[in-house]
Amino acid sequence: MILTWDQAPEEVYPQLKIVAPIQKLVSETLVKHVDEPDEHSFPRSNVNLLAQHNYLGLLTPKEYGGLGLDALHATYAIEQIASVAPATGFVLLLHLLTANRIAKAGSEYQRRKYLPKLACDTLGASAWSEKGVGADKAFLNTKAYLQDGYWRLNGQKAFCTGAGQAGVYMVMTDTTDGKGFFLVESENAGLVLGPQMDSMGLQGTHSGSVGFENALVADEERVGEPGKIGPIIAFDMRSGLHSGIVASGIALGTFRRLLDTVRQNLAFEKYESVRVRVSSLAIQLSIMRTHVYALAEQASKPESERPGIEAATMTAKQFLSESALQMTSDAIAIAGTVGYLRETGLERLHRDALGIVIAAPINGQVLGSIGESLRIKDTASHLYKV
Ligand SMILES: Cc1cc2nc3c(=O)[nH]c(=O)nc-3n(C[C@H](O)[C@H](O)[C@H](O)COP(=O)(O)OP(=O)(O)OC[C@H]3O[C@@H](n4cnc5c(N)ncnc54)[C@H](O)[C@@H]3O)c2cc1C
């Protein structure tokens, strides 16, 4: 299915069920973070609104208190929200990824314990990255070892979206048997919050450091088997959830702002070249949105009907984030000095777009993985290994 630049997705996907409430949320109630003077504040009121509408449980099965919707609905919600509040869209994405992993890879004990609260009012976060460790996470400084039925966690995580705001952290550590995943609650006495990152964009995501000082975690909180977490990471790649959706939202918000700006300063009326450049961005946006929704539609099908979706997700993330970055930069140049001013919000969207390029999987890693799979003539199995 093809979407044009500003087309309402429900015209193409009539099965979308949450259109009216999402549109009301986006236009009337959500704090449009792009216009907020304080970039550093966490969009708590937006998250509370999402919770009130049960959107934190968008993908959670109904039996665990969620809405039980699919990737198409999640994509719609994230894209539309990110078009006015990219940080909120990104926080929702990371939350849904965390809940989805528990739903797919967690034990029944973990599903019953965590999914209802993650569907209701508790944010989930993923604490995988560390400063100076690199995207491949080959050697982590955060270690976990088992003693008397409890895992003892020590180390420092960085860049964790929702640090200090989340109620549950899915933590990646090294163990003597390889990499492991553990669910750690914010009340854990050994969890020590560090400073928020002073990043150039997406500051509202409150990405920051989360430390563990002899944090005791019961064995029931281990997700999967240490040394065998690859399939859990693969769930992300098969879920249809990826930060390229936020990039699509950023591009949509950018395009709308640009159009408003050039209409107001009459450049659109006066200059053929401005109309041509805006039109070429419209085409680019149409391709981006078509890609995002086609992937979401595929990810909403049963597992057996998603051939090649890991590779498609990786390439979508790369293509969409690079396209959004280029679009935000072009939009500023087309708008002229007014676009260069912070007040139009375009420069902030540009900084946010760069954050998506760097967010996992970082684009160089995507290209590296595709290159490796082409080298060994294997199109899928080398993608995004940890
Ligand atoms: C806004 C934002 C939010 C984030 N939120 C979270 C979060 O919630 N939880 C979390 O754990 N982390 C989070 N991160 C961190 C993010 O996951 C990492 O930044 C990402 O995985 C990249 O890792 P790195 O910065 O260590 O890359 P590095 O490995 O340091 O990359 C260095 C360079 O090497 C290239 N490179 C890396 N791997 C390869 C490869 N295989 N082939 C070729 N080139 C390669 C990269 O493209 C880059 O140019 C967030 C980051 C951002 C920007």
Keywords:
alpha+beta; Butyryl-Coa Dehydrogenase, subunit A, domain 1; Butyryl-CoA Dehydrogenase, subunit A, domain 2; 3 domains; four-stranded mixed β-sheet; four-stranded antiparallel β-sheet; 14 helices; binds flavin-adenine dinucleotide
Can I get a quick summary?
The chain has 386 residues and is of the alpha+beta class. Flavin-adenine dinucleotide binds next to β1, β3, α13 and α14.
Can you characterise this structure?
It is a single chain. With 386 residues, this protein is an alpha+beta fold. The protein folds into three domains: 115 residues, Acyl-CoA dehydrogenase/oxidase, N-terminal domain (Butyryl-Coa Dehydrogenase, subunit A, domain 1, Orthogonal Bundle), CATH 1.10.540.10; 99 residues, Butyryl-CoA Dehydrogenase, subunit A, domain 2 (Beta Barrel); 144 residues, Up-down Bundle (Butyryl-CoA Dehydrogenase, subunit A, domain 3), CATH 1.20.140. Helices cover 49% and strands 14% of the residues. It is built from 14 helices and eight strands. The chain has a four-stranded mixed β-sheet, with helices on one face. Strands 2-3-7-6 form a four-stranded antiparallel β-sheet, with no helix packed on it. Helix 4 runs antiparallel to helix 10. The longest helix has 28 residues. Flavin-adenine dinucleotide binds next to strand 1, strand 3, helix 13 and helix 14. The site of flavin-adenine dinucleotide (FAD) has 25 residues, from strand 1, strand 3, helix 13 and helix 14.
